[in-house]
Specification:
Elements: H1 2-15, H2 19-45, H3 55-81, H4 91-118, E1 126-127, H5 132-151, H6 161-186, H7 196-223, H8 242-267, E2 272-273
Parallel strand pairs: 1-2
Helix pairs in contact: 1-2, 1-4, 2-3, 3-4, 3-5, 3-6, 5-6, 5-8, 6-7, 7-8
């Protein structure tokens, strides 16, 4: 909480931010700070007992999400706003931005340490979101958001039916993953008429198959010389090149495929508890 407050205070006071990247970083720091304050308040006052939430699942899911968001902001802010020289922003602004970047890194370390310390240990019965499988669900959804960001950045996914199928795969898996997280966090899994844990394993297996198809189709229709370009076009402008977006999508498709495979492997060894 202290690191988050210090980071956005430094940026708001003198460091400054601009454009979508800076706005995203400020949103991350303020969002994480606000939810952390909410969690601490509920822990001390026991207000969480009045909420329609599975508190163990909620806190575990937030810690993982905050880790991913904070590491993204910790990379983006210094990359776009920190410079070695003082010109043209001035030495004082530069120093504030460097300090904000340091505290942003410490914020990520703090959240990552929380995830490490609170994750489910082998043989321990705990809430689903604290297990490796549950934490991977958050990472999968986060990676899917990166893919969607690249898709809307002039990726030309509508050019072929095959690439549209890949978009359907990304969308379907993202929606179902979010639904799984939502049911876990709200503690409503016991109300379902089907076994939630078994259904999640079946879905994960299906997601592996779907992502395998996308991992084959997307590179072929984007980088094969028959359909796309194996190399980056020399006339492509930086930041506005469809090939760059297609490459990002291809990379994170394989990342998410690996995450779903790991999820499937770990999900065979967990025991689901809905009320923690």
């Amino acid at each position: 909480m202290t690191f988050g407050c210090t980071t956005f205070s430094l940026v708001a006071h003198q460091g400054g931010f601009s454009a979508a990247y800076g706005t995203f970083c400020m949103f991350v720091w303020t969002f994480c700070f606000a939810i952390t304050v909410f969690i601490i308040t509920c822990e001390f006052t026991h207000l969480h007992s009045c909420l329609s939430l599975s508190w163990g699942n909620f806190t575990a899911a937030f810690a993982m999400l905050a880790t991913l968001m904070s590491v993204t902001a910790a990379v983006i802010y210094p990359l776009y706003f920190v410079q070695v020289g003082c010109y043209p922003i001035g030495c004082e602004v530069r120093d504030f931005r460097i300090a904000a970047s340091v505290f942003a890194g410490l914020l990520f370390v703090a959240y990552a340490a929380e995830v490490f310390l609170t994750r489910a240990k082998p043989g321990q019965v705990t809430s689903y979101m604290a297990t490796v499988s549950g934490l991977l669900k958050i990472v999968q959804a986060f990676v899917a958001c990166i893919i969607f960001g690249a898709l809307v950045n002039d990726s030309q996914y509508g050019k072929y039916v095959a690439t549209q199928w890949c978009v359907a795969v990304y969308s379907f898996c993202f929606v179902v993953t979010v639904v799984v997280v939502a049911f876990s966090v709200t503690g409503k899994t016991a109300l379902l008429w089907f076994p939630f844990e078994r259904s999640v394993v079946i879905y994960t297996f299906g997601a592996v198959l779907l992502y395998m198809s996308a991992a084959v189709i997307w590179p072929v229709f984007c980088f094969d010389s028959k359909y796309g370009s194996p190399q980056r076009p020399s006339l492509c402008a930086k930041g506005k090149c469809p090939w760059d977006s297609q490459l990002v999508i291809a990379i994170f498709t394989y990342v998410n495929l690996l995450l779903y495979v790991l999820d499937l492997a770990y999900s065979q060894r967990i025991r689901f508890v809905s009320h923690l």
